[in-house]
Amino acid sequence: GPKVLQIPSHQIIDMGQMVTLNCDPVSNHLYFYWYKQILGQQMEFLVNFYNGKVMEKSKLFKDQFSVERPDGSYFTLKIQPTALEDSAVYFCASSTGLGSAETLYFGSGTRLTVL
Amino acid sequence: GDSVTQMQGQVTLSEDDFLFINCTYSTTWYPTLFWYVQYPGEGPQLLLKVTTANNKGISRGFEATYDKRTTSFHLQKASVQESDSAVYYCVLRNNNNRIFFGDGTQLVVKP
After folding, report:
1. Are A69 and A49 in contact (CB under 8 A)?
2. Using one digit for the tens of pLDDT, what is the confidence trace for A67-85?
């Protein structure tokens, strides 16, 4: 099936540093998402993005978070500065459209550890 | 507000047992309902989806019926295998295109 690629698979950084998580969505998809999953817990929505703009974000999407997709390249999640509570697995997802029947395709996640 | 409830945090079975994972939902209109499966170290992947009330989705031996009367979307499989061990998420996408995940059910299948 369609593949969403996430780079890197693991990232370890010190608290206060900046980190950028990269996502290569399915090629013809137009809508992009980030989800956060703390180990063993539920999937939590962070943000969705279309046509260069944030469409919706949750309370978890703090001011230190930002997303962009410059010139159709990677869809990125940047955290600056990072905090200990940002340690989690971050999943990128994409879909062709925004209809209620649209399927989200997820990447394998980036495990972020903030020390 | 809209929500998805999975009461079972973990289900432990032996190979060839019957699987039943409970899922109920709450929403105003007619959602699309999904089951996603997450294997260790991977992202959730679509198992099946149903867009129309009272229809059944079937995939890889799993099935789920979108029951509007009982607002349920239980997942079943007649005979599980060890390779089915994973976390299963019931997911709702409502008419406002918001997506709601259940808490997930960890399935452990012993050989």
Report:
1. yes
2. 999 877 899 999 999 999 9
